[in-house]
Amino acid sequence: MVAVVRRLSVVLVAALALAGCTATEQPPRPTSTAPVVQLGAPGEDNRTMSPEEQLEITSAPHTDTDVAFVRDMLHHHAQALVMTGFVDERASSDGIRLLAERMQVSQQDEMGQLESWLQQRGEPVRDPDAPHAHTLMPGMLTEDELAALEAAEGEAFDALFLQSMIRHHEGALVMIAELYGSVDGAEPDLAQLAGHFDSDQRIEIARMSSMLAELSG
């Protein structure tokens, strides 16, 4: 009888030990081996980030430089919408009208993204149509130049619109380059957003340059 009790005790202890191991020991969680790629600045290659860099970049805060860029770009985009607003009544080319329509959609979409970036970080969104405290950003038209564009018609308008919008887009590229080159700017999400803007602007510049060459020819 004593031997039976001892055997039962051994079995009970073993069972408890096994249950304890089952409750506390979990299989190791799979770790992601997918590389994280950091987008390079315009003209630079992308690169794969180390785990340490990934941890650091996820906690990077936005700065006053980032906020200033976003608000300036909102104002910059707002003028582009003013320029495309002249097209329907003044352009002679259906191609110009289609181009302007696409620009209006893309610029409005980008403005929505910029406003959301500010809102998500608790930053007030300034009305891009309100009087701007700064000097004109790169590529922006003066009031006299806007008036001249508004007064033009037909093929003269087509050519002036393309010239003006190419300059406007090139100014946006300068602003993006300045953000990337700043000491404390380009929070990760904003850097990615600006990179998309850069690509879109370059594509549109190439298209407008081709259309302007056709007009000149």
UniProtKB/TrEMBL annotation:
InterPro entries in UniProt: DUF305_CopM-like, Ferritin-like
Domain named DUF305: residues: 66-212
UniProt keywords, alphabetically: Signal
One Pfam family named in its UniProt record: DUF305
Coiled coil: none
Domain of life: Bacteria
The keyword Repeat belongs to this UniProt entry's keyword annotation: no
Signal peptide: 1-19
Descriptive protein name: DUF305 domain-containing protein
Source organism per UniProt: Microbacterium salsuginis
